């Protein structure tokens, strides 16, 4: 196949990649999370097979980004081997995407721009339909989430897509060319901006603002440099004021959310101090954070921090997460990558500038969010890294024999991942079928373990089936395994209930207390502890907890809180002080 045709074919396939992030597929565990992985992963495998079979080249230009990509591929393989699941399998597909783009060596940006603009329009329309209640939201707490489970992911994907379009607009305006394409891109961006504001996702706003500023300065760098030299003092005085004002506005928009992130980072620093060199390993943050939060809140947390603390397994800061999991070596590697993105020389053209802008948006968003848990963001960043590597000066050029071996390796890798993907999807659908059968054989779940050990839904259903069948001994074992991978207050409450049914009251009390220590504002654990004390005859402790639960202010007063308070009043009728009952009624009216 001629080189021009192979480049055009690869460019068309890459244009299809963003549209996979819009698809919503039912029948999957966590469909808002899984749908984009399945659809985009399928496109990636086609890209790998296409690059291996239809791209003819006699040379491979090895550049510095290939070293970064190789290390990340090794880490992704380790993640999949330790915790197999759909996200880890999708992450393992990203090296195939990178290698396919590197093998073709060049893409036509027009196709990718069209695919990005179309995807941005579809995502925007999705958000408008949700806002006007013509489509359901995928969260009970937020009206606009797009095809994802919360607005933060939705806004992050839209910010990345707009950072793809912004550099082309900057070049087009400066050169005054491509009016038809420019108008279409402007229409897509203007359609997306109101939806992005409706999400109230400040991290995405900041990331997009940085990418737009970078694009503007790059497009008009000489004018900006002259302007800075002329008004340097005024700019240096005004810049801190503008940045502080913007930061205060973002903080005041959701102060509790910002303070909650600060609490997570404060606890994470204590984790880093404990294992600064080696870290906690793969999946170390979600597997350990809640225990450290419980320890911190019990020892030195303030009343406000105990009110803020929530059930989370995300660091909301990628440098912090990487340091917690991989120690000093991991954060140094991350900082080297950031330094390379910002400073490494590449050809000055719209492709390299767009790639750098996308990576910059991802890195800035990662200071306040979790891009490495959002597959579309990882996929777009991989495309950007590969395109930037194509623009860099090679460190070494390998010739025909290596190129053929590379093509064979890419083909085998794509085929193997395709087979794993088919098996994983079959396992997912089988898991869903078992979850709908209350009398299903629990042992059949063990056959799915090799493909789903790292999937939280698998661990949950492994506990759900024995719970339905009243197999408490087995349930206790499964809960221990589930808590080891993903500890949470809900899991400890569940564990406490099992111990209580087995008349292991000391273990039940310990489980309820641990759940309460993890998230002190969670009333479910203390409610169960109250009734446990009441059943055991420890009436004084039960009354103290009941009065505490009836009078404290809760984050969200929902049906569960209302039902708990009604049950408390009925159980301890006549034993509670009138003042506590009046305070409880006042809170319920609010």
Brief summary of the model shown:
The chain contains 26 helices and two strands. The chain has helices spanning 3-16, 31-54, 64-82, 86-104, 109-131, 151-175, 179-198, 202-219, 221-230, 232-253, 255-274, 284-299, 303-308, 318-343, 350-365, 375-391, 400-435, 449-452, 456-468, 472-485, 489-501, 505-518, 523-535, 539-551, 559-571, 578-589, and strands at 60-62, 396-398.
Written overview of the protein:
- By secondary structure, the chain is mainly α.
- It has 26 helices and 2 strands.
- Strands 1-2 form a two-stranded antiparallel ribbon.
- The chain starts with a helix and ends with a helix.
From the structure above, extract its key features.
590 residues, mainly alpha, two-stranded antiparallel ribbon, 2 strands, globular
Which strands sit side by side, in order, in the main sheet? 1-2
- Mean of pLDDT: 85
Q: How large is the share of residues in beta strands? A: under 5%
Overall geometry: globular
Main beta sheet, described? 2 strands, antiparallel
Total number of helical segments? 26
Q: Based on DSSP secondary structure assignment, what is the total number of beta strands?
A: 2
User: How much is the radius of gyration in Å?
Assistant: 27 Å
SSE ordering: HHEHHHHHHHHHHHHHHEHHHHHHHHHH
Structural class: mainly alpha
For the terminal residues, how far apart are their CA atoms? 71 Å
Oligomer: single chain
Low-confidence stretches: 579-590
Helical amount among residues, as a percent range? over 70%
């Amino acid at each position: 196949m001629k080189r021009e045709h192979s480049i055009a074919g690869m460019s068309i396939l890459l244009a299809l990649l963003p549209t996979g992030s819009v698809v919503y597929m039912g029948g999957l565990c966590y469909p808002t999370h899984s749908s984009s992985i399945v659809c985009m992963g399928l496109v990636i495998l086609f890209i790998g097979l296409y690059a291996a079979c239809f791209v003819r080249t006699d040379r491979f230009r090895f550049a510095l980004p290939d070293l970064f990509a190789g290390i990340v591929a090794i880490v992704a393989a380790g993640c999949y081997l330790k915790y197999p699941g759909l996200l880890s399998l999708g992450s393992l597909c990203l090296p195939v995407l990178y290698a396919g783009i590197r093998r073709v060596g060049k893409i036509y940006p027009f196709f990718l721009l069209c695919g990005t603009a179309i995807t941005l329009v579809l995502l925007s329309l999705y958000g408008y339909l949700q806002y006007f209640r013509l489509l359901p939201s995928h969260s009970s707490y937020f009206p606009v989430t797009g095809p994802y489970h919360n607005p933060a992911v939705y806004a992050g994907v839209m910010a990345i897509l707009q950072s793809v379009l912004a550099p082309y607009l900057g070049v087009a305006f400066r050169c005054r060319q491509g009016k038809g394409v420019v108008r279409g891109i402007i229409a897509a961006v203007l359609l997306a901006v109101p939806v992005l504001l409706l999400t109230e996702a400040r991290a995405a706003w900041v990331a997009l603002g940085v990418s737009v500023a970078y694009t503007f300065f790059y497009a008009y760098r000489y004018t900006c440099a002259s302007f800075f030299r002329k008004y340097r003092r005024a700019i240096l005085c005004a810049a801190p004021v503008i940045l502080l004002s913007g930061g205060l506005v973002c903080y005041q928009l959701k102060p509790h959310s910002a303070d909650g992130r600060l609490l997570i980072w404060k606890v994470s620093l204590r984790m880093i101090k404990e294992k600064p060199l080696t870290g906690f390993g793969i999946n170390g943050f979600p597997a350990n954070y809640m225990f450290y939060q419980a320890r911190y809140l019990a020892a030195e947390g303030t009343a406000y921090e105990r009110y803020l603390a929530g059930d989370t397994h995300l660091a909301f800061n990628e440098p912090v997460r990487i340091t917690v999991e991989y120690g000093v070596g991991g954060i140094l590697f991350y900082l080297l990558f950031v330094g390379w993105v910002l400073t490494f020389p590449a050809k000055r053209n719209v492709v390299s500038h767009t790639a750098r802008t996308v990576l910059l948006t991802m890195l800035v968003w990662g200071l306040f969010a979790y891009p490495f848990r959002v597959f579309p963001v990882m996929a777009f960043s991989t495309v950007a890294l590969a395109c930037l590597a194509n623009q860099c000066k090679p460190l070494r050029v390998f010739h025909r024999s290596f190129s053929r071996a590379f093509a064979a390796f890419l083909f085998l890798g794509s085929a193997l991942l395709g087979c794993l993907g088919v098996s994983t999807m079959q396992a997912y659908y089988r898991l869903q079928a078992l979850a709908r059968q209350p009398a299903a054989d629990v042992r059949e779940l063990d056959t799915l373990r090799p493909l789903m050990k790292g999937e939280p839904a698998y661990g949950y259903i492994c506990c759900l089936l024995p719970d339905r069948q009243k197999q408490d001994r087995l349930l206790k074992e499964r809960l221990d395994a589930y808590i080891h991978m993903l500890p949470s207050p809900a899991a400890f409450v569940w564990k406490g209930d099992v111990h209580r049914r087995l008349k292991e009251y000391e273990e039940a009390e310990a489980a309820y207390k641990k759940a309460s220590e993890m998230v002190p504002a969670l009333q479910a654990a203390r409610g169960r502890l109250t009734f446990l004390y009441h059943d055991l005859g420890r009436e004084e402790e039960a009354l103290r907890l009941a009065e505490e639960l009836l009078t404290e202010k809760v984050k969200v007063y929902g049906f569960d809180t209302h039902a708990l308070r009604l049950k408390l009043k009925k159980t301890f009728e006549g034993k509670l002080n009138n003042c506590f009952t009046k305070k409880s009624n006042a809170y319920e009216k609010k």
